[in-house]
Amino acid sequence: MENDNLIRYGVSIQKGLQDQFDSYIALKGYGNRSEAIRDLIRESLIKEGHANKEAVAIGSISIVYDHHIHELSAKLTDIQHDFQDCIISSMHVHIDHHNCMEVIIVKGKLLSLEALANKLAVIKGVKTGKLTLVY
Ligand code: NI
User: Fold this and answer.
1) Ligand 1 center to 97 CA (angstroms)
2) Bridge partner residues of 5 (DSSP)
3) Are 61 and 35 members of one domain?
4) What's this model's pTM, rounded to 2 decimal places?
5) What is the DSSP letter of 1?
6) What's the gap in Å between 118 CA and the centre of ligand 1?
7) pLDDT confidence of 106, banded at 50, 70, 90?
8) How many angstroms does the Cα of residue 92 sit away from the middle of ligand 1?
9) CA-CA distance, 10 to 12, in Å (whole number)?
10) Rounded to the nearest whole angstrom, what is the distance from the C-alpha of residue 122 to the centroid of ligand 1?
């Protein structure tokens, strides 16, 4: 994938900034600047929501909720069954007497992953619902 339509271009940058960047990429363990720059670009695009929504993405959705709320667990399960094509695995942790945490590993079109995360997050009683993309 990395070699598809590779283009090269020069970048003007202050020496001080480049030195900081070189320290950063050494710390992160990158073999070269190009891969570090590509990762930063991808990360920024994902953060800004400008990534291709039709492209396949991988990540996790973390939710925290009070399992005492009537029907909440059943609603969350129903939604996950509707999105079973996107769900690779999930883990349930009982945080305390009231709260449960679920981490759902997802893979699919970004459009679908966002839809799933939003459907889970907006249910009454779900305290946090966050999609984190790794790719
Ligand atoms: Ni639980």
Assistant:
1) 8
2) none
3) no
4) 0.70
5) -
6) 21
7) very high
8) 6
9) 7
10) 19
